[in-house]
Amino acid sequence: MATRKLFLLPGDGIGPESMAEVRKIITYLNEEKGLGFETDEGLVGGSAYDAHGQAISEGDMEKALAADAVLFGAVGGPKWDSVPYEVRPEAGLLRLRKDLALFANLRPAICYPALADASSLRPEVVEGLDILIVRELTGGVYFGEPKEIIDLGNGQKRGIDTQVYETYEIERIAGVAFELARTRGNKVTSMEKRNVMKSGVLWNEVVTATHKAQYADVQLEHMLADAGGMQLVRWPKQFDVIVTDNLFGDMLSDVAAMLTGSLGMLPSASLGAPDATTGKRKALYEPVHGSAPDIAGQGIANPIAMIASFAMCLRYSFNLIEEADRLEAAIAAVLDDGIRTGDIWSEGSKKVGTVEMGDAILAKFKALSA
Ligand code: IPM
Ligand code: MG
């Protein structure tokens, strides 16, 4: 039987509570379905800093590199606000993305029918929403050099970040977006700021050329990223797949997430290139939401984004499509039953905590898998 190696990095804040609910699902899949997941666990973010003075230890980096997939919770919190920049909690996540070369970040924004009312937009604007943001994750201003603060010696300083993209980086992320569009609504909207940024001009050119050369069957549209943000809140259902750079993708995916009612709902997958011999991609799965230190440890966090991230892991890393479909269906069914954590609660529905939500999803998942 194949062993499936998972490396769990619960992290800080609500990360560990959410991960605990995924662990129950893994245990069930091993004990009842014989899927042979082997799990190991490490520290990342503030918890790693407290233990090792680093945002992730070398040992845990090695384990992440050796795993079939990494499940990541969340990092950060006020406790670590003043640690040195190089070892701030987020540095652990950025190092994982960079060293595992996870250039493609898939962020679906799906509005569960039962939650159309939880959105700040009118239900008819978000009902049935199903868009996929494909965010470039290892380039752009997040990693460009120089990245520094220079003392100008006259009482002034200069802060510099560098936005930089090369052709191959744009080609490969565009390729991922076009391939995925073919499995969905067959439309890609590319977003950049070619009206002010040279990297945006190149982005636009390369996406257009990639489309022409290999994906002319897919509908392609270009939008300036600011207008794209506006269109996302005006009429989000016009979009199918959105492809954009690292920084715009960070911002636009938070906007898209909130359309669906709660940041607590959305999963993400970060994928590398297929290995030349095995065809396997390195992968990390994480909720789009952060560590929510304000509610950490109270047992009220919404574990759905973490559980849905595991569903993406089943789908993309292990090709367990039926199991992934069933886990996603279990989430939708629990929401249909009116079971809600506080962030998505509304009058008339049943308010539950993290553990009860996890248990309810597991029970539905078991029923659907019977
Ligand atoms: C995200 C987060 C991260 C990012 C932070 C935690 C570094 O906001 O995954 O969207 O900016 O990429
Ligand atoms: Mg973000």
Q: Portion of residues in helices? A: 40-55%
How far do the termini sit from each other? 21 Å
- List of distinct ligands in this structure: 3-isopropylmalic acid, magnesium ion
Task: State the order of secondary-structure elements, H for helix, E for strand.
Answer: EHEHHEHEHEEEHEHEHEHEEHHEEH
CATH level 1 class label of the largest domain = Alpha Beta
- Supply the CATH architecture of the largest domain: 3-Layer(aba) Sandwich
Structural class: alpha/beta
Give the percentage of residues in beta strands.
15-25%
Rg for CA atoms: 20 Å
How many distinct domains?
2
Unreliable stretches covering 5 or more consecutive residues = none
The CATH homologous superfamily of the largest domain is named Isopropylmalate Dehydrogenase
Query: Major sheet: size, sense and barrel closure?
Result: 10 strands, mixed
Number of H/I helices? 12
Mean pLDDT equals 96
Shape: globular
CATH topology of the largest domain: Isopropylmalate Dehydrogenase
Strand order of the largest sheet: 2-1-3-12-11-4-5-10-8-9
Strand tally, please? Answer: 14
